[in-house]
Amino acid sequence: MVAAASVVVAVGTVAGLVSALDSGPDGDDEARPLVSEEPSMRPWPAVPSATPSTGPSTNSPSPTKSSAEPVPRKAPARPKPSSAAPVASASTRLYRHGDSQVLEWVRDHRSDPRRPLIESRIADRPAAVWFADFQPDTITSRVRVVTSAARSAGQVPVVVPYAIPQRDCGGASDGGAPDRGAYDDWIDRFAAGLGSREVIVILEPDAVSETECLSEGQRADRYAALARAGRVMKAANPRARVYYDAGHSDWNPVGTQAARLRQAGAATAASSDGIFTNVSNFNWTSSEAAYARGVLAAMGGPSGLGAVIDTSRNGNGAPANGAWCDPDGRKLGQAPTLRTGRSRIDAYLWVKLPGESDGCKGDAGAFTPDYAYELAD
């Protein structure tokens, strides 16, 4: 349900402290150390900016969703094909990749009156880098561009592999690998670019939450592919932290999501470090933290499993009417950080890049300055 977001390079730079942008009712918890239309009322993803390349980059859109009424889904835009206390040796700084739609806009519009606010509140903060275009021959080098740059900067990158077969059940963010064999090969190549330093992997948004379009056999095959993907990535880089799709607090019930996650390998240390929630959505951080803890408890597995929350657009919470497509009145959420001060919550991340449209205030996945300014103001 990541409807139309730009899928490849979601970026930003900042590190450290949590900002007070999320004014929702968040309780105080002790910190957990980091080891290391509104046609349907369901949220949709917008594909994030295009993935980095070894040469000049191009951006193209892709999707993700937000909360919705009966069976909400995220409302993200996919990429355009294009701190709990840290443990020893674990960086507390997140990486801002230098290739994104918002940075390109900032560079090209120095005299625009909106530029200073967009640059300081969005472009200068770290965000995820999406890999949504299925291009096996170049995926290793494109991932390596990001992880190598982060290593040189002494920072932790966040990468999003988004190529599962039958992605988004044929919705706005459809695409991905043509079949399981092709996907396994793509994952092997993706993992080869992860390097040897700490990296956060947001594995296939919506892949566990949105499976209603699949037959029982297809669902089992998807879960097996996800479990394998986590194992392959952690084998390729033991310092990679792999998180699995838990949807968000207004989507599937805790028990349902936990059962699916177990089947997908999320409760096994060999393939998983935990779960992620709220990608491209708007729910309050406090609601997502409570939901994530509930899913982790129901899922079982090692006590060290944690959760990361997408806080990119949840500064005002979700709209009361369940709107997911660039709804009015939303604001930036808490700044990306690996120090959350909440038990079992490993990080707040900007997985969906603020300003990349869900498809209502701009083309799906395209950076839209008016929307970005509205979120940042």
Q: How much helicity do the residues have?
A: 25-40%
Ends distance: 27 Å
Low-confidence stretches: 3-46, 54-91
Main sheet characteristics: 7 strands, parallel
CA-based shape = globular
Mean of pLDDT: 83
Helix and strand content put the structural class at alpha/beta
Strand order of the largest sheet: 5-6-7-8-9-10-11
Secondary-structure element order, N to C: EEEEHHEHEHEHEHEHEEH
Radius of gyration, in angstroms, nearest whole number: 18 Å
How many helix segments? 8
Into which percentage range does the β-strand content fall? 5-15%
DSSP strand count:
11
Explained architecture:
The protein is of the alpha/beta class and 377 residues long. 27% of the residues lie in helices and 11% in strands. It is built from eight helices and eleven strands. The chain has helices at 101-108, 115-123, 136-153, 180-192, 216-236, 254-263, 285-299, 369-376; strands spanning 6-7, 47-48, 65-66, 73-75, 129-131, 158-161, 199-203, 240-245, 274-277, 306-310, 345-349. The protein has a seven-stranded parallel sheet, covered by helices on one side. A two-stranded parallel ribbon has the order 1-2. A two-stranded antiparallel sheet has the order 3-4. Helix 2 packs across helix 8 (369-376), helix 4 packs parallel to helix 5 (216-236) and helix 6 crosses helix 7 (285-299).
